[in-house]
Amino acid sequence: xxxxxxxxxxxxxxxxxxxxxxxxxxxxxxxxxxxxxxxxxxxxxxxxxxxxxxxxxxxxxxxxxxxxxxxxxxxxxxxxxxxxxxxxxxxxxxxxxxxxxxxxxxxxxxxxxxxxxxxxxxxxxxxxxxxxxxxxxxxxxxxxxxxxxxxxxxxxxxxxxxxxxxxxxxxxxxxxxxxxxxxxxxxxxxxxxxxxxxxxxxxxxxxxxxxxxxxxxxxxxxxxxxxxxxxxxxxxxxxxxxxxxxxxxxxxxxxxxxxxxxxxxxxxxxxxxxxxxxxxxxxxxxxxxxxxxxxxxxxxxxxxxxxxxxxxxxxxxxxxxxxxxxxxxxxxxxxxxxxxxxxxxxxxxxxxxxxxxxxxxxxxxxxxxxxxxxxxx
Length: 377
Fold this sequence. Notes:
By secondary structure, the protein is an alpha/beta fold. It has helices at residues 30-35, 75-87, 107-116, 133-140, 148-157, 171-177, 184-197, 220-231, 260-277, 282-288, 301-304, 333-338, 341-344, 365-376, and strands at 42-46, 92-97, 120-125, 161-165, 208-211, 236-238, 305-308, 313-317, 320-327. The protein has 14 helices and nine strands. The protein is globular, with a radius of gyration of 19 Å.
């Protein structure tokens, strides 16, 4: 059954002049990177590990970085990491895991701390908790927050950007993609409607994204429709093939990833749509290069950021659970950053996606998409 959230269009025809193809706080322009070379502008960080879902493609379950874990990040450790990072230029933090960030009794407290530090929080969430008042009350009643609408109002106050998991309109497909949790999709849809009601998609750039990842054999047929639907509502849509870490390491990614021809066709349609809507010009795409996130802002995480995991290990990025730069238990964040491979890439605007290249992202994908655009765009 298709269950499409009730959200009106934001744009008729082309997007307005000056439209920013990004979500607030995520990536950085070439100018920002040039002006801040050598700075640690962003961090990905784990905050707790509780999750009521069981996504079969989860990049954090069975993660090699967590093998043999003996000590995990506590609240005070996270505060210290942010304090150190702020001195290095920190402007934003992305919460990816290891669990569902909202399923943590101290999460709102930490978001309020980030607000005081003038750091933008970007929260990857499946949204089921926001859309379920009983779960909101369970996790947030000690803050005086009892409903999804009240929780969303708190997220406005802390200047959060929400990166909402959105793999499918179909309730059967989507419920299966979070581990067979019946009724999840309708809660996610309610969360999206509450966020839109609160104005998360009103800004430029927007503060609300749909995370349509991974592209799999199960949902590739509707990814383009999700992309169009989202962009017409000023929802930044992030879509790409699966990470090759966690449950999709050890070649597990291969069984769910569509063929190269299918991915080339999907990326091409997305970029042609962007050109048609005025989101990008062909010249801009040639200058920026094809992004690993189809049609979205190129990823420059590994030129200005790092990933601090629940175990205290510092990784190149969330998609790579092998390249370890150090441990916060053994060294300062500054030393880890200055000696990291990411520091050597400072100023790079489009980093592609090294962990996925030649795996879930075929080596010829970007070149074939660009050739299609030059021929058709």
